[in-house]
Specification:
Bound molecules: D-mannonic acid
Largest sheet: 6 strands, parallel
CATH class of the largest domain: Alpha Beta
Number of strands: 13
CATH architecture of the largest domain: 3-Layer(aba) Sandwich
CATH superfamily of the largest domain: NAD(P)-binding Rossmann-like Domain
CATH topology of the largest domain: Rossmann fold
Shape: globular
Number of helices: 20
Length: 495
């Protein structure tokens, strides 16, 4: 089956790339990651291109075994089917403007499909060798209400709360899996643990901690109280900021990788050369020497996180909606349009910059230039519609904090209004300028469609209908009529 660039064999420890190419980095010694010390929930492309790489580099530099990763997949067995036949090996294809390089990563030494292997997940969380649980489960994976509390009516959460007894294995929500795992850990006497959220949320560690507390409070009987006390005494929840652009892998990427590696890699991920990780240094039971791999360990992540979410992710979302509507397939094509690049730059200069608490040594203008240059990397092929998905979950984190801070000082954040109007136009139109359909991939899709259907159809009424969804916009924005007027004006132009 020589289907991928002539490569017959599949990547694994018995089929490694030849050691002769300078543009291919081979994995380190197999034993380094054999023993699992980290369980990662949500083993998608992002984790494999980011935290797993930092962890492997740290293990190699410090020559420290024991931090192998067991990647847990939640919704489908695809990643398990990709990684297991490859002994967990996969390549990161790094695409800069001028070159393509690949490195084979071996840090993910085990994988697990939670829906079918609940018992094993529980055993791992209760294993004393496991000292950190990291996660990238996306914004919607936390199942939060608009007020930040756990959505107890969410079917997965409700299921987990009503499942019988301590340490029950069939949990479906992340929060349920964690609390049940921690109960099992308490029972086994396995000792303290760190839960490290790596999702794009404001104060991700605090958010996670709050959700676990909500879950414990909602558990019937004494179980919840016991679990909450044990967690308070034994578990830390550092915040972290993660950054690397990781577009969805395509068949072309797989063919390029096969040509480079000489073996097929079904678990391939693609990434830009840049990578950043800022972590609050509050670990309950040790951690890899991530600082030796280039991560920044700090006392307070908030300024870094705010900078990244508001500048990078804020402009990313704005460009995704404006670009998709204008018929651009990729973010790189979008920032190549001078009008759209300036719109993103204005969002940073006029609205975001005045709200920031700038991290030491950072120049916001230079940071914004760097971000837009990263977006402009044409080799990535990062699709506008990929960034556009889950808007209802992303806008609050990326844009509404900026809006609130500006409004509180009496300013009307016109660029934020444009970004929100672009999202609304994307939802309403469902097609780009050439008539091509734009997918609305969003957990609130039925709600969004209904709001638009029920509105009379002019830009003002659509703006009011969508801004009136409290799950996205909360309730305070309605106190600022000048802001909703600005959104409506932009929406009218876009429609
Ligand atoms: C993007 C992010 O898909 C998206 O919504 O904005 O995934 C972005 O590429 C990363 O946060 C970069 O670190």
């Amino acid at each position: 089956m020589a289907d991928r660039g002539g490569a017959v064999n599949r990547l694994s420890w018995s089929h490694l790339p030849a050691a002769t190419r300078l543009d291919v980095q081979l994995p380190p010694n197999r034993t380094l990651a054999e023993s699992v010390g980290i369980v990662h929930l949500g083993i998608g492309a992002f984790h494999r291109a980011h935290q797993a790489v930092f962890t492997e580099d740290a293990a190699v530099i410090a020559q420290e075994p024991g931090w192998g990763i067991c990647g847990v997949t939640q919704r489908s067995s695809t990643v398990v089917d990709q990684l297991r036949p490859q002994d967990g090996l996969y390549a990161v294809l790094e695409r800069s403007r001028s070159e393509v390089r690949a490195r084979v990563v071996a840090q993910v030494s085990d994988v697990l499909f939670a829906a079918q292997e609940g018992e094993r997940l529980l055993r791992l969380l209760a294993d004393p060798a496991v000292r950190i649980v990291t996660m990238t489960v996306t914004e919607k994976g936390y199942r939060r209400r608009a007020d930040g509390t756990l959505d107890l009516d969410d079917p997965a959460v409700a299921h987990d709360l009503s499942s019988p007894g301590r340490g029950h294995a069939g949990s479906r929500s992340i929060v349920g899996q964690l609390v049940r795992g921690l109960q099992a850990r308490q029972t086994c006497g396995a000792g303290p643990l760190t839960l490290l959220s790596c999702d794009n949320l404001t104060e991700n560690g605090r958010v996670l901690q709050g959700l676990l507390q909500d879950f414990c409070r909602a558990l019937p009987g004494r179980d919840g109280e016991d679990a909450a006390t044990w967690i308070a005494d034994n578990v830390t929840f550092p915040c972290s900021m993660v950054d690397r652009i990781v577009p969805a892998t395509t068949e072309r990427d797989r063919a390029d990788a096969a040509a480079l590696l000489g073996v097929r890699d079904e678990a391939l991920v693609v990434a830009e050369p840049f990578g950043q990780w800022v972590i609050e240094d509050r670990f309950a039971a040790g951690r890899p020497a991530w600082e030796r791999a280039g991560a920044t360990l700090v006392d307070d992540v908030a300024p870094y996180e705010q900078l990244k979410l508001r500048v990078l992710n804020g402009t990313h979302s704005m460009l995704a909606y404006l670009g998709a509507l204008a018929g651009y397939e990729t973010i790189a094509d979008t920032v190549a349009d001078p009008a759209l690049r300036s719109a993103a730059r204005r969002l940073v200069d006029d609205d975001v910059a005045p709200t920031l608490q700038v991290p030491p040594g950072v120049d916001v203008s230079a940071y914004a230039d760097q971000v837009l240059d990263r977006f402009a990397n044409p080799a990535l092929g990062h699709r506008t519609t990929q960034v556009a998905m889950d808007g209802s979950q992303k806008l609050p984190v990326r844009l509404l904090g900026t809006a609130r801070d500006r409004l509180a000082t009496g300013a009307v954040p016109d660029s934020v209004a444009l970004a929100i109007a672009a999202w609304m136009a994307y939802v309403v139109r469902g097609r780009d300028i050439t008539g091509r359909p734009l997918p609305l991939d969003d957990p609130l899709e039925p709600r969004l469609r209904k709001a638009v259907r029920d509105a009379p159809g002019d830009a003002r009424s659509i703006t009011d209908a969508l801004l009136g969804i409290p799950e996205i916009f909360g309730t305070e924005l309605t106190d600022y009529p000048a802001f909703s007027a600005a959104v409506a004006t932009h929406l009218k132009e876009l429609l």
